[in-house]
Amino acid sequence: MILHGRNLIIKANGVAIAAARSCSVSIQAEQLPISSPMSGAWASFLNGTKSWSVSTNQLLVTLRTALIVGTQVSLEFCVEGKGVTFGGFTSNPTLESGACPTTPTSIVWDKTRKKFLACLYDAPNFFFYESWEGQEPYTNIEDYQLFMCEGQPYRQTFTWVDGELYSENLSGNANVQAYEAVGTVGNLAQGSFRFMGNGPLSAAELP
Q1: What is the pLDDT of residues 26-72, one digit of tens each?
Q2: What would the pLDDT profile of 145-199 be if each residue is shown by its tens digit?
Q3: Quick check: pTM over 0.85?
Q4: Architecture in CATH of 5-80+170-201
Q5: How many other C-beta atoms can be found within 10 angstroms of the C-beta atom of residue 196?
Q6: What whole-number distance in Å separates Cα of residue 196 and Cα of residue 8?
Q7: Residue range(s) occupied by CATH 2.40.30 in the chain
Q8: Nearest residue to 169 (alpha-carbon basis) of 139, 201, 124
Q9: Could you give the CA distance from residue 12 to residue 127 in angstroms, rounded to a whole number?
Q10: 199: phi > 0 → left, psi -120 to 50 → alpha, else beta; which?
């Protein structure tokens, strides 16, 4: 699935940056020059320390946000958009024989078997099935298909790649480096932030 610009959301301290129109994320590794008898006249490099930065552009809704310059925030980059929905996660539950006899209570991802299962709740027990009516979107999957987990507290987007689900949430701490506001007669006022990563940028694990 090809992502659109609206699918990429930047959150600062857990809140999406208001009225954001565009954003960019830059991740780079320092390149350290080395001498190599095998490369002749060509330069060779070793990867050094990594760094990351973020910039956002948004419509101006208040000037008070400029006061966070010089502070540190928790930044989260996530993908939000339409995808196949499921309800949560499980790990290696006992499977019932045959197909689910009725409409499943929810569809869950089995982290051990690496497949979706139908979950049927019949108080006080949960029953799991490998087959159910309408299961095709969960079994006939193309790489980079988005899946939306709707179960709390796991509500987020995941991507299917090579038979596995991966979280589309990256997060880390960043220093608020700069803020700029631009107002032009006849146009909407614009604001922009620059954030410099302070420490590692990491991907969320499956719940």
Answers
A1: 999 999 998 877 777 888 899 999 999 999 888 888 888 888 999 99
A2: 999 998 777 778 899 999 999 988 889 999 999 999 988 888 888 889 999 999 9
A3: no
A4: Beta Barrel (2.40)
A5: 14
A6: 18
A7: 5-80+170-201
A8: 201
A9: 40
A10: left
